[in-house]
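My main concern about presentation is that the manuscript never shows what a single data entry looks like. An entry of this sort, consisting of the sequence and the corresponding C-alpha cells, reads as follows:
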Amino acid sequence: MAPWLCCSSLSSARLRNNPALDATAVEEPLRFHSPVEVSTERYAREQTEIAGVTIPQGALVYGILSSANRDATQFEKADVLDLGRERNRHLAFGQGIHYCLGAPLARLGGLIALRKLLDRVPTLRLAVPESGLRWRKGLNLRGLEALPVTW
C-alpha cells in the first residue's frame, strides 16, 4: 500500500515538494504496514527466557515482525506513520542471515514508484476513508484486497 495516500493532502504536497524525504517515505511504510508479519519457523538452540517466559531448547518459535516494528522501546511514537522518520531500523526485510537479498531492489523500486506517482498524479488520494480499506486475510503476508484511488 502507499500509506502516504492516507495522509492529508498537505503530507502529499510535502513529499511532492521535498524529494529528500523519498527514502524515509519508502522505509516508514515498510515498518508501519509490514508486508511480512510473521517470520518463518525457528527452533530455540538452547533454553532461554524472554520477558519472564521460559522457552525450552528445541521449541518452535515465530518472530512477530509486525509487532517488533511497532515496539515503543525501539521507535518513538511507534503507532504513528511518520514519513520523515530518521531512525528506522525496521524488520520488514528480516535480519542477519535471513535478511532479504532483494531488499535493495525493493527499495529502489519503491523510490522510483513513489517519485513517479507524485510527479505524474499530484492529486492522487484515497477514494474511500482509510477505515474502509480491507486487508487480505492470512498469517504471513499482509496486503490490501484493493486500493481505490481518485485524482
